[in-house]
Design a protein that fits this description.
The complex is a heterodimer of chains A (231) and B (303). With 231 residues, chain A is α+β, with helices and mostly antiparallel strands. Chain A has one domain. Chain A contains three helices and 14 strands. In chain A, a hairpin with a 2-residue loop joins strand 1 and strand 2. The radius of gyration of chain A is 17 Å and the shape is globular. Chain B has 303 residues and is of the alpha+beta class. Chain B has two domains: 3-246, no CATH class; 260-301, no CATH class. In chain B, 21% of the residues lie in helices and 27% in strands. Chain B is built from six helices and 17 strands. In chain B, the strands form four sheets. In chain B, strands 4, 7, 8, 9, 12, 14 and 15 form a seven-stranded mixed sheet that branches. In chain B, strands 3-2-1-6 form a four-stranded mixed sheet, with no helix packed on it. In chain B, strands 5-13-10-11 form a four-stranded antiparallel sheet, with no helix packed on it. The chains are: A alpha+beta (231), B alpha+beta (303).
Chain lengths: 231, 303
Protein backbone atom coordinates (compact mmCIF):
# COMPACT_ATOMS: atom_id res chain seq x y z
CA UNK A 1 0.00 0.00 0.00
CA UNK A 2 1.32 3.39 -0.90
CA UNK A 3 1.00 6.15 1.61
CA UNK A 4 1.09 9.76 0.58
CA UNK A 5 2.75 12.52 2.55
CA UNK A 6 0.57 14.83 4.60
CA UNK A 7 0.57 17.73 2.14
CA UNK A 8 -0.26 15.55 -0.79
CA UNK A 9 -2.98 13.84 1.19
CA UNK A 10 -4.53 17.13 2.17
CA UNK A 11 -4.50 18.40 -1.40
CA UNK A 12 -5.96 15.20 -2.74
CA UNK A 13 -8.54 15.11 0.00
CA UNK A 14 -9.72 18.58 -0.91
CA UNK A 15 -10.13 17.65 -4.55
CA UNK A 16 -11.73 14.38 -3.52
CA UNK A 17 -14.28 16.12 -1.37
CA UNK A 18 -15.00 18.57 -4.15
CA UNK A 19 -15.56 15.69 -6.53
CA UNK A 20 -17.83 14.00 -4.06
CA UNK A 21 -19.85 17.13 -3.53
CA UNK A 22 -20.35 17.63 -7.25
CA UNK A 23 -21.17 13.97 -7.74
CA UNK A 24 -23.81 13.99 -5.04
CA UNK A 25 -25.27 17.16 -6.44
CA UNK A 26 -25.37 15.72 -9.93
CA UNK A 27 -27.21 12.70 -8.69
CA UNK A 28 -29.68 14.84 -6.88
CA UNK A 29 -29.66 12.72 -3.79
CA UNK A 30 -27.82 10.26 -1.62
CA UNK A 31 -26.26 7.11 -2.96
CA UNK A 32 -28.27 4.17 -1.82
CA UNK A 33 -26.01 1.27 -1.34
CA UNK A 34 -22.42 2.05 -0.48
CA UNK A 35 -20.72 -0.24 1.98
CA UNK A 36 -19.26 1.05 5.22
CA UNK A 37 -15.52 1.58 5.35
CA UNK A 38 -13.84 1.79 8.74
CA UNK A 39 -10.57 3.65 9.06
CA UNK A 40 -8.59 5.21 11.87
CA UNK A 41 -6.70 8.41 12.40
CA UNK A 42 -4.97 9.63 15.54
CA UNK A 43 -6.35 6.72 17.47
CA UNK A 44 -9.95 7.31 16.46
CA UNK A 45 -12.11 5.05 14.28
CA UNK A 46 -14.15 6.77 11.58
CA UNK A 47 -16.70 5.49 9.11
CA UNK A 48 -16.62 6.22 5.40
CA UNK A 49 -18.60 4.94 2.47
CA UNK A 50 -17.25 3.42 -0.68
CA UNK A 51 -18.71 2.30 -3.95
CA UNK A 52 -18.35 -1.42 -4.18
CA UNK A 53 -18.53 -1.43 -7.96
CA UNK A 54 -15.77 1.07 -8.55
CA UNK A 55 -13.81 0.59 -5.35
CA UNK A 56 -13.90 4.29 -4.68
CA UNK A 57 -14.56 6.11 -1.47
CA UNK A 58 -17.85 7.89 -1.91
CA UNK A 59 -17.83 9.94 1.27
CA UNK A 60 -14.83 9.81 3.61
CA UNK A 61 -16.94 10.81 6.59
CA UNK A 62 -20.20 9.04 5.82
CA UNK A 63 -22.28 7.93 8.75
CA UNK A 64 -25.55 6.98 7.06
CA UNK A 65 -25.83 3.91 4.86
CA UNK A 66 -28.86 2.63 2.97
CA UNK A 67 -29.74 -0.99 2.34
CA UNK A 68 -32.74 -3.10 1.34
CA UNK A 69 -34.21 -6.16 2.92
CA UNK A 70 -35.49 -8.61 0.34
CA UNK A 71 -33.23 -7.53 -2.48
CA UNK A 72 -33.19 -11.25 -3.21
CA UNK A 73 -36.86 -12.30 -3.07
CA UNK A 74 -35.82 -15.64 -1.61
CA UNK A 75 -34.81 -13.79 1.53
CA UNK A 76 -37.55 -11.22 2.05
CA UNK A 77 -36.54 -10.33 5.60
CA UNK A 78 -32.79 -10.52 5.23
CA UNK A 79 -29.93 -8.62 3.69
CA UNK A 80 -26.16 -8.87 3.45
CA UNK A 81 -25.63 -5.17 2.80
CA UNK A 82 -24.15 -2.90 3.94
CA UNK A 83 -20.89 -4.76 3.91
CA UNK A 84 -17.72 -3.56 5.59
CA UNK A 85 -14.33 -2.65 4.29
CA UNK A 86 -11.42 -1.44 6.38
CA UNK A 87 -7.76 -0.58 6.24
CA UNK A 88 -7.10 -0.99 9.96
CA UNK A 89 -5.00 -4.01 9.17
CA UNK A 90 -4.02 -6.32 11.95
CA UNK A 91 -6.83 -5.18 14.22
CA UNK A 92 -9.90 -6.99 15.35
CA UNK A 93 -12.81 -4.67 14.84
CA UNK A 94 -16.11 -5.06 16.61
CA UNK A 95 -19.29 -3.70 15.13
CA UNK A 96 -21.62 -2.89 17.99
CA UNK A 97 -25.34 -2.76 17.37
CA UNK A 98 -26.86 -0.19 19.67
CA UNK A 99 -30.13 -0.78 21.40
CA UNK A 100 -33.14 1.00 20.03
CA UNK A 101 -34.74 0.75 16.61
CA UNK A 102 -36.63 3.53 14.85
CA UNK A 103 -39.09 3.54 11.99
CA UNK A 104 -39.73 6.25 9.41
CA UNK A 105 -43.12 7.92 9.82
CA UNK A 106 -42.93 9.96 6.64
CA UNK A 107 -41.32 12.98 8.18
CA UNK A 108 -38.96 11.66 10.84
CA UNK A 109 -37.81 8.51 12.59
CA UNK A 110 -39.60 7.46 15.73
CA UNK A 111 -38.75 4.72 18.17
CA UNK A 112 -40.41 1.36 17.63
CA UNK A 113 -40.53 -1.85 19.62
CA UNK A 114 -42.52 -3.71 17.00
CA UNK A 115 -39.47 -5.04 15.18
CA UNK A 116 -35.94 -6.21 15.86
CA UNK A 117 -32.99 -6.13 13.50
CA UNK A 118 -30.19 -8.62 14.07
CA UNK A 119 -26.72 -8.46 12.59
CA UNK A 120 -24.67 -11.65 12.47
CA UNK A 121 -21.26 -12.71 11.28
CA UNK A 122 -19.45 -15.95 11.90
CA UNK A 123 -21.79 -17.08 14.63
CA UNK A 124 -21.64 -13.86 16.66
CA UNK A 125 -24.51 -11.43 16.59
CA UNK A 126 -26.13 -8.38 18.07
CA UNK A 127 -29.56 -6.92 17.78
CA UNK A 128 -31.48 -3.71 18.18
CA UNK A 129 -33.19 -4.96 21.32
CA UNK A 130 -30.29 -6.18 23.45
CA UNK A 131 -27.26 -4.72 21.72
CA UNK A 132 -24.19 -6.88 21.16
CA UNK A 133 -22.32 -7.26 17.94
CA UNK A 134 -19.80 -9.20 15.96
CA UNK A 135 -16.05 -9.00 15.45
CA UNK A 136 -13.66 -9.65 12.64
CA UNK A 137 -9.95 -9.51 11.96
CA UNK A 138 -8.93 -7.01 9.30
CA UNK A 139 -6.38 -7.93 6.65
CA UNK A 140 -5.51 -6.36 3.30
CA UNK A 141 -8.28 -6.74 0.79
CA UNK A 142 -10.74 -7.02 3.63
CA UNK A 143 -14.31 -7.38 2.45
CA UNK A 144 -16.98 -8.62 4.80
CA UNK A 145 -20.71 -9.00 4.46
CA UNK A 146 -22.61 -9.70 7.66
CA UNK A 147 -26.14 -11.04 7.58
CA UNK A 148 -28.96 -8.78 8.70
CA UNK A 149 -32.39 -10.05 9.63
CA UNK A 150 -35.56 -8.25 10.62
CA UNK A 151 -38.43 -9.78 12.54
CA UNK A 152 -41.56 -8.61 14.27
CA UNK A 153 -42.55 -9.40 17.80
CA UNK A 154 -42.77 -13.04 18.82
CA UNK A 155 -41.56 -14.31 15.50
CA UNK A 156 -44.10 -12.45 13.40
CA UNK A 157 -43.07 -10.88 10.15
CA UNK A 158 -41.97 -7.29 10.53
CA UNK A 159 -44.20 -4.57 9.15
CA UNK A 160 -43.08 -2.93 5.97
CA UNK A 161 -41.27 0.28 6.68
CA UNK A 162 -37.98 2.09 6.65
CA UNK A 163 -35.96 1.29 9.76
CA UNK A 164 -33.05 3.08 11.37
CA UNK A 165 -30.40 0.94 13.08
CA UNK A 166 -27.67 2.57 15.16
CA UNK A 167 -24.15 1.11 15.33
CA UNK A 168 -20.59 1.97 16.18
CA UNK A 169 -17.23 0.28 15.73
CA UNK A 170 -14.57 -0.41 18.34
CA UNK A 171 -11.14 -2.00 18.52
CA UNK A 172 -8.49 -2.43 21.15
CA UNK A 173 -6.22 0.59 21.31
CA UNK A 174 -8.55 2.83 19.32
CA UNK A 175 -11.30 5.16 20.36
CA UNK A 176 -14.73 3.89 19.42
CA UNK A 177 -16.24 5.48 16.34
CA UNK A 178 -19.08 7.87 16.52
CA UNK A 179 -22.46 6.33 15.90
CA UNK A 180 -23.28 5.49 12.30
CA UNK A 181 -26.64 4.42 10.99
CA UNK A 182 -28.03 1.84 8.61
CA UNK A 183 -31.32 2.81 6.97
CA UNK A 184 -33.01 -0.42 5.93
CA UNK A 185 -35.94 -0.46 3.56
CA UNK A 186 -38.48 -3.24 3.99
CA UNK A 187 -40.97 -2.93 1.19
CA UNK A 188 -41.37 0.82 0.96
CA UNK A 189 -40.78 2.88 -2.17
CA UNK A 190 -37.33 4.04 -3.11
CA UNK A 191 -38.59 7.60 -2.77
CA UNK A 192 -39.48 7.03 0.85
CA UNK A 193 -36.20 5.29 1.45
CA UNK A 194 -34.34 8.20 -0.10
CA UNK A 195 -36.27 10.67 2.01
CA UNK A 196 -35.45 8.76 5.17
CA UNK A 197 -31.76 8.60 4.29
CA UNK A 198 -31.79 12.29 3.55
CA UNK A 199 -33.45 13.01 6.87
CA UNK A 200 -30.86 10.97 8.73
CA UNK A 201 -28.03 12.76 6.97
CA UNK A 202 -29.56 16.13 7.74
CA UNK A 203 -30.61 15.53 11.30
CA UNK A 204 -28.16 13.01 12.72
CA UNK A 205 -24.85 13.90 11.09
CA UNK A 206 -22.78 16.98 11.95
CA UNK A 207 -22.77 19.96 9.59
CA UNK A 208 -20.63 19.83 6.43
CA UNK A 209 -18.13 22.37 7.78
CA UNK A 210 -17.23 20.04 10.60
CA UNK A 211 -16.92 17.17 8.18
CA UNK A 212 -14.43 19.04 6.03
CA UNK A 213 -12.21 19.67 9.01
CA UNK A 214 -12.40 16.06 10.03
CA UNK A 215 -11.73 14.76 6.55
CA UNK A 216 -8.74 16.95 5.87
CA UNK A 217 -6.46 14.30 7.24
CA UNK A 218 -8.07 11.18 5.85
CA UNK A 219 -5.39 8.88 4.53
CA UNK A 220 -6.03 8.53 0.84
CA UNK A 221 -4.01 5.37 1.10
CA UNK A 222 -7.13 3.71 2.38
CA UNK A 223 -8.16 3.26 -1.19
CA UNK A 224 -5.02 1.44 -2.15
CA UNK A 225 -4.80 -2.28 -1.99
CA UNK A 226 -8.49 -2.79 -2.24
CA UNK A 227 -9.79 -4.91 -4.96
CA UNK A 228 -12.68 -4.04 -7.18
CA UNK A 229 -16.03 -5.33 -6.10
CA UNK A 230 -18.65 -6.49 -8.45
CA UNK A 231 -21.91 -6.01 -6.74
CA UNK B 1 11.16 -23.82 -17.52
CA UNK B 2 8.73 -21.70 -19.44
CA UNK B 3 8.67 -17.97 -19.02
CA UNK B 4 5.30 -18.12 -17.37
CA UNK B 5 6.45 -20.65 -14.84
CA UNK B 6 9.49 -18.54 -14.14
CA UNK B 7 7.27 -15.58 -13.37
CA UNK B 8 5.21 -17.69 -11.04
CA UNK B 9 8.22 -18.67 -9.01
CA UNK B 10 9.36 -15.10 -9.03
CA UNK B 11 6.02 -14.06 -7.64
CA UNK B 12 6.51 -16.38 -4.71
CA UNK B 13 9.84 -14.82 -3.98
CA UNK B 14 8.49 -11.31 -4.06
CA UNK B 15 5.15 -11.56 -2.36
CA UNK B 16 5.02 -8.86 0.30
CA UNK B 17 5.03 -9.90 3.92
CA UNK B 18 5.76 -13.50 3.11
CA UNK B 19 6.10 -15.41 6.32
CA UNK B 20 8.66 -17.96 7.36
CA UNK B 21 8.96 -20.83 4.95
CA UNK B 22 10.11 -24.40 5.10
CA UNK B 23 12.88 -24.41 2.51
CA UNK B 24 12.75 -28.10 1.78
CA UNK B 25 9.06 -27.92 1.06
CA UNK B 26 9.54 -24.77 -0.93
CA UNK B 27 12.16 -26.47 -3.06
CA UNK B 28 9.84 -29.38 -3.56
CA UNK B 29 7.12 -27.01 -4.57
CA UNK B 30 9.35 -25.27 -7.07
CA UNK B 31 10.42 -28.61 -8.51
CA UNK B 32 6.83 -29.61 -8.83
CA UNK B 33 5.94 -26.35 -10.47
CA UNK B 34 8.74 -26.69 -12.97
CA UNK B 35 7.22 -29.90 -14.24
CA UNK B 36 4.00 -28.20 -15.15
CA UNK B 37 2.56 -26.90 -18.30
CA UNK B 38 2.44 -23.18 -18.86
CA UNK B 39 -1.23 -23.27 -18.00
CA UNK B 40 -0.24 -24.16 -14.50
CA UNK B 41 0.50 -20.51 -13.98
CA UNK B 42 -3.22 -19.89 -13.90
CA UNK B 43 -3.49 -21.60 -10.61
CA UNK B 44 -0.88 -19.76 -8.89
CA UNK B 45 -1.17 -16.39 -10.30
CA UNK B 46 -0.11 -13.76 -7.90
CA UNK B 47 -3.53 -13.80 -6.36
CA UNK B 48 -3.37 -17.29 -5.00
CA UNK B 49 0.29 -17.45 -4.19
CA UNK B 50 0.44 -14.10 -2.50
CA UNK B 51 -2.78 -14.77 -0.68
CA UNK B 52 -1.49 -18.00 0.69
CA UNK B 53 2.01 -16.74 1.36
CA UNK B 54 1.05 -13.70 3.31
CA UNK B 55 0.64 -14.08 7.05
CA UNK B 56 -2.19 -11.58 7.09
CA UNK B 57 -4.04 -13.62 4.48
CA UNK B 58 -4.63 -11.16 1.68
CA UNK B 59 -7.26 -13.50 0.49
CA UNK B 60 -9.60 -11.26 -1.38
CA UNK B 61 -7.52 -11.04 -4.49
CA UNK B 62 -8.36 -14.71 -4.75
CA UNK B 63 -12.08 -14.19 -5.01
CA UNK B 64 -13.88 -16.15 -7.67
CA UNK B 65 -14.70 -14.08 -10.71
CA UNK B 66 -17.84 -15.24 -12.47
CA UNK B 67 -18.73 -14.70 -16.10
CA UNK B 68 -19.78 -16.73 -19.14
CA UNK B 69 -18.02 -17.68 -22.34
CA UNK B 70 -19.09 -17.39 -25.94
CA UNK B 71 -20.97 -20.66 -25.68
CA UNK B 72 -23.01 -19.40 -22.75
CA UNK B 73 -21.28 -21.61 -20.21
CA UNK B 74 -20.69 -20.08 -16.81
CA UNK B 75 -16.99 -19.61 -16.16
CA UNK B 76 -14.87 -18.95 -13.10
CA UNK B 77 -11.94 -16.57 -13.12
CA UNK B 78 -9.13 -15.00 -11.22
CA UNK B 79 -10.09 -11.66 -9.71
CA UNK B 80 -7.43 -9.03 -10.08
CA UNK B 81 -7.18 -5.44 -8.96
CA UNK B 82 -8.55 -4.39 -12.32
CA UNK B 83 -11.41 -6.83 -12.69
CA UNK B 84 -12.17 -10.35 -13.74
CA UNK B 85 -9.04 -11.99 -15.13
CA UNK B 86 -8.28 -15.29 -16.86
CA UNK B 87 -10.32 -18.44 -16.44
CA UNK B 88 -9.35 -20.26 -13.26
CA UNK B 89 -10.75 -23.32 -11.56
CA UNK B 90 -8.71 -23.55 -8.37
CA UNK B 91 -9.08 -21.07 -5.53
CA UNK B 92 -7.63 -20.78 -2.07
CA UNK B 93 -9.35 -20.24 1.24
CA UNK B 94 -8.08 -19.94 4.78
CA UNK B 95 -10.27 -20.82 7.71
CA UNK B 96 -9.93 -18.26 10.46
CA UNK B 97 -8.86 -15.44 8.16
CA UNK B 98 -11.30 -13.06 9.81
CA UNK B 99 -10.46 -14.27 13.29
CA UNK B 100 -13.23 -16.83 13.66
CA UNK B 101 -12.20 -20.43 14.20
CA UNK B 102 -13.05 -22.95 11.50
CA UNK B 103 -14.87 -20.25 9.56
CA UNK B 104 -14.33 -18.10 6.53
CA UNK B 105 -16.49 -16.07 4.21
CA UNK B 106 -13.84 -16.11 1.50
CA UNK B 107 -13.43 -16.45 -1.33
CA UNK B 108 -16.45 -14.51 -2.42
CA UNK B 109 -17.97 -14.64 -5.87
CA UNK B 110 -17.67 -11.63 -8.10
CA UNK B 111 -19.43 -10.92 -11.37
CA UNK B 112 -19.06 -7.40 -12.67
CA UNK B 113 -22.15 -5.22 -12.90
CA UNK B 114 -23.85 -5.87 -16.20
CA UNK B 115 -22.58 -9.41 -16.52
CA UNK B 116 -25.93 -11.15 -16.06
CA UNK B 117 -29.63 -10.50 -16.56
CA UNK B 118 -31.02 -9.52 -13.17
CA UNK B 119 -34.21 -11.44 -13.80
CA UNK B 120 -32.35 -14.65 -13.10
CA UNK B 121 -30.32 -16.36 -10.40
CA UNK B 122 -27.09 -18.25 -10.03
CA UNK B 123 -26.76 -21.28 -7.81
CA UNK B 124 -24.14 -23.80 -6.81
CA UNK B 125 -23.89 -27.52 -6.20
CA UNK B 126 -21.39 -29.44 -4.09
CA UNK B 127 -20.15 -32.07 -6.52
CA UNK B 128 -18.16 -34.31 -4.19
CA UNK B 129 -17.85 -35.17 -0.52
CA UNK B 130 -15.33 -33.02 1.31
CA UNK B 131 -11.82 -34.45 1.11
CA UNK B 132 -8.62 -33.85 3.04
CA UNK B 133 -5.00 -33.70 1.89
CA UNK B 134 -2.79 -36.60 2.99
CA UNK B 135 0.46 -35.24 1.62
CA UNK B 136 0.23 -36.93 -1.74
CA UNK B 137 -3.42 -36.70 -2.66
CA UNK B 138 -6.91 -36.07 -1.36
CA UNK B 139 -8.83 -38.72 0.52
CA UNK B 140 -12.20 -38.81 2.27
CA UNK B 141 -12.28 -36.95 5.56
CA UNK B 142 -13.04 -40.26 7.25
CA UNK B 143 -12.51 -43.68 5.69
CA UNK B 144 -15.65 -44.87 7.42
CA UNK B 145 -17.65 -42.50 5.29
CA UNK B 146 -17.94 -38.83 4.54
CA UNK B 147 -20.79 -38.44 6.98
CA UNK B 148 -18.42 -39.44 9.78
CA UNK B 149 -15.55 -37.10 8.99
CA UNK B 150 -15.35 -33.35 8.75
CA UNK B 151 -18.02 -31.71 6.64
CA UNK B 152 -18.46 -28.21 5.34
CA UNK B 153 -21.54 -26.12 5.94
CA UNK B 154 -22.18 -23.42 3.35
CA UNK B 155 -24.68 -20.76 4.28
CA UNK B 156 -26.05 -17.49 3.08
CA UNK B 157 -28.62 -15.59 5.11
CA UNK B 158 -31.29 -18.18 5.90
CA UNK B 159 -30.18 -20.83 3.40
CA UNK B 160 -27.58 -23.49 4.05
CA UNK B 161 -26.35 -26.87 2.89
CA UNK B 162 -23.72 -29.23 4.22
CA UNK B 163 -21.39 -31.46 2.23
CA UNK B 164 -22.34 -35.10 2.41
CA UNK B 165 -21.68 -38.53 1.04
CA UNK B 166 -22.98 -37.69 -2.38
CA UNK B 167 -23.26 -34.61 -4.50
CA UNK B 168 -25.38 -32.09 -2.66
CA UNK B 169 -27.69 -29.63 -4.35
CA UNK B 170 -26.94 -26.11 -3.26
CA UNK B 171 -29.16 -23.08 -3.57
CA UNK B 172 -29.39 -20.04 -5.76
CA UNK B 173 -29.03 -16.32 -5.17
CA UNK B 174 -30.50 -13.58 -7.29
CA UNK B 175 -28.40 -11.66 -9.73
CA UNK B 176 -28.13 -8.22 -8.22
CA UNK B 177 -30.07 -5.29 -9.65
CA UNK B 178 -26.98 -3.95 -11.42
CA UNK B 179 -26.42 -7.28 -13.18
CA UNK B 180 -23.51 -8.21 -10.95
CA UNK B 181 -23.24 -11.13 -8.60
CA UNK B 182 -21.05 -10.34 -5.67
CA UNK B 183 -21.74 -12.80 -2.91
CA UNK B 184 -19.87 -14.06 0.09
CA UNK B 185 -21.07 -17.38 1.39
CA UNK B 186 -20.17 -18.48 4.90
CA UNK B 187 -18.04 -21.61 5.11
CA UNK B 188 -17.99 -23.40 8.45
CA UNK B 189 -15.88 -26.54 8.85
CA UNK B 190 -17.65 -28.97 11.13
CA UNK B 191 -15.78 -31.55 13.22
CA UNK B 192 -15.93 -35.27 12.61
CA UNK B 193 -18.51 -37.21 14.55
CA UNK B 194 -17.35 -37.45 18.13
CA UNK B 195 -14.61 -34.84 17.77
CA UNK B 196 -14.62 -31.47 19.44
CA UNK B 197 -12.92 -29.67 16.59
CA UNK B 198 -12.04 -30.31 12.99
CA UNK B 199 -8.50 -31.47 12.36
CA UNK B 200 -5.92 -29.09 10.98
CA UNK B 201 -5.43 -29.85 7.33
CA UNK B 202 -6.05 -28.91 3.73
CA UNK B 203 -9.60 -29.58 2.63
CA UNK B 204 -10.91 -29.84 -0.90
CA UNK B 205 -14.36 -28.70 -1.92
CA UNK B 206 -15.57 -29.28 -5.47
CA UNK B 207 -18.33 -26.98 -6.69
CA UNK B 208 -20.13 -25.98 -9.83
CA UNK B 209 -22.27 -22.98 -10.64
CA UNK B 210 -25.59 -23.24 -12.40
CA UNK B 211 -27.83 -20.60 -13.92
CA UNK B 212 -31.56 -20.20 -14.06
CA UNK B 213 -31.27 -18.20 -17.27
CA UNK B 214 -32.09 -20.50 -20.18
CA UNK B 215 -29.33 -19.03 -22.30
CA UNK B 216 -26.61 -20.07 -19.88
CA UNK B 217 -25.24 -23.49 -18.92
CA UNK B 218 -23.56 -25.04 -15.89
CA UNK B 219 -19.92 -24.18 -15.24
CA UNK B 220 -17.09 -26.64 -15.32
CA UNK B 221 -16.25 -27.95 -11.85
CA UNK B 222 -14.00 -25.75 -9.76
CA UNK B 223 -12.25 -26.33 -6.47
CA UNK B 224 -11.64 -24.56 -3.19
CA UNK B 225 -8.40 -25.64 -1.52
CA UNK B 226 -9.15 -24.68 2.07
CA UNK B 227 -6.51 -24.42 4.75
CA UNK B 228 -7.19 -25.00 8.42
CA UNK B 229 -3.98 -24.47 10.33
CA UNK B 230 -1.63 -26.06 7.83
CA UNK B 231 1.34 -24.51 6.11
CA UNK B 232 1.11 -22.33 3.06
CA UNK B 233 3.44 -24.73 1.29
CA UNK B 234 1.14 -27.67 1.90
CA UNK B 235 -1.78 -25.69 0.60
CA UNK B 236 0.16 -24.83 -2.53
CA UNK B 237 1.21 -28.43 -3.04
CA UNK B 238 -2.40 -29.49 -2.69
CA UNK B 239 -3.41 -26.91 -5.28
CA UNK B 240 -0.76 -28.27 -7.61
CA UNK B 241 -2.12 -31.75 -7.10
CA UNK B 242 -5.61 -30.59 -8.02
CA UNK B 243 -4.27 -28.96 -11.14
CA UNK B 244 -2.41 -32.12 -12.10
CA UNK B 245 -5.07 -34.66 -11.33
CA UNK B 246 -8.47 -33.05 -11.66
CA UNK B 247 -8.23 -30.60 -14.52
CA UNK B 248 -7.85 -32.04 -18.00
CA UNK B 249 -4.76 -30.85 -19.85
CA UNK B 250 -6.07 -28.51 -22.55
CA UNK B 251 -3.03 -29.12 -24.73
CA UNK B 252 -1.86 -32.73 -24.35
CA UNK B 253 0.12 -32.69 -27.58
CA UNK B 254 2.40 -29.91 -26.34
CA UNK B 255 4.94 -32.32 -24.92
CA UNK B 256 7.64 -29.74 -24.31
CA UNK B 257 5.26 -27.29 -22.68
CA UNK B 258 6.30 -24.39 -24.84
CA UNK B 259 2.75 -23.20 -25.41
CA UNK B 260 2.28 -24.55 -28.92
CA UNK B 261 2.09 -27.83 -30.78
CA UNK B 262 4.94 -27.66 -33.25
CA UNK B 263 7.86 -29.42 -34.87
CA UNK B 264 9.51 -30.11 -31.53
CA UNK B 265 6.50 -32.09 -30.41
CA UNK B 266 6.37 -33.89 -33.75
CA UNK B 267 10.01 -34.83 -33.30
CA UNK B 268 9.18 -36.38 -29.93
CA UNK B 269 6.45 -38.48 -31.52
CA UNK B 270 8.73 -39.66 -34.28
CA UNK B 271 11.60 -40.44 -31.95
CA UNK B 272 9.35 -42.55 -29.76
CA UNK B 273 7.43 -44.15 -32.64
CA UNK B 274 6.32 -47.64 -31.74
CA UNK B 275 7.39 -47.20 -28.16
CA UNK B 276 5.58 -45.85 -25.15
CA UNK B 277 5.77 -42.84 -22.91
CA UNK B 278 6.09 -39.32 -24.22
CA UNK B 279 4.08 -38.93 -27.38
CA UNK B 280 1.45 -41.47 -26.40
CA UNK B 281 -1.32 -38.92 -26.29
CA UNK B 282 -4.18 -41.38 -26.08
CA UNK B 283 -2.31 -43.49 -23.56
CA UNK B 284 -2.80 -46.61 -25.62
CA UNK B 285 0.65 -47.86 -24.67
CA UNK B 286 2.09 -47.23 -28.10
CA UNK B 287 3.08 -44.08 -29.93
CA UNK B 288 1.32 -44.61 -33.22
CA UNK B 289 -0.75 -43.11 -35.98
CA UNK B 290 -3.53 -42.09 -33.63
CA UNK B 291 -1.10 -39.92 -31.72
CA UNK B 292 0.26 -38.51 -34.93
CA UNK B 293 -3.24 -37.59 -36.03
CA UNK B 294 -3.84 -35.96 -32.67
CA UNK B 295 -0.77 -33.80 -32.89
CA UNK B 296 -1.56 -32.72 -36.42
CA UNK B 297 -5.11 -31.79 -35.50
CA UNK B 298 -3.84 -29.73 -32.57
CA UNK B 299 -1.10 -28.03 -34.56
CA UNK B 300 -0.45 -24.46 -33.55
CA UNK B 301 -0.85 -22.40 -30.41
CA UNK B 302 -2.38 -24.08 -27.38
CA UNK B 303 -5.82 -22.86 -26.34
Amino acid sequence: MKYLNRHTRTALTASFLAAYTSMAAAQGGPLHNPDAYLWAQNGQIYSASWNDSTDEIVDPTARVFGADFGEDPSFPYAAEEPGFGSNIFGSTLTVNILSGLSIWNGTAFQSTSAAVITGEYGGASGNSLDGGGFSFFVSPGFDLHPSYFISGNEGAAADIGVYLLSLNASAAGLATSQTFWFVFNLGKSEEEHDAAIEWANTNLVPAPAALLVLASGIPLGLRSGRRRRGG
Amino acid sequence: MSMRTARTIDSIQHCPNTGPTDNSKNDKLKDTMNMHTPNFTHIIRTALICAMSTPVFAQHMGDIGVSSNALGQLTTHVVTTTGVGPVERIFGAIFGDTGIANFTSNPGFDALPGTFNNAYRLGFNIRQPLQVWDGSGFTPTDPAGPLMGERLKISFLTANVTSGADPVAGFSLAVQPDGGWHRHFSFLLQPAIGAANPRAGIYLLELELWPTAPTLTVSDPFWLVMNLGSSVQDQQLAAVWVRDHLIPNPCPADFDNNGSVDGLDLAIILSNWGGSGSGDIDQSGTVDGVDLASILSAWGACP
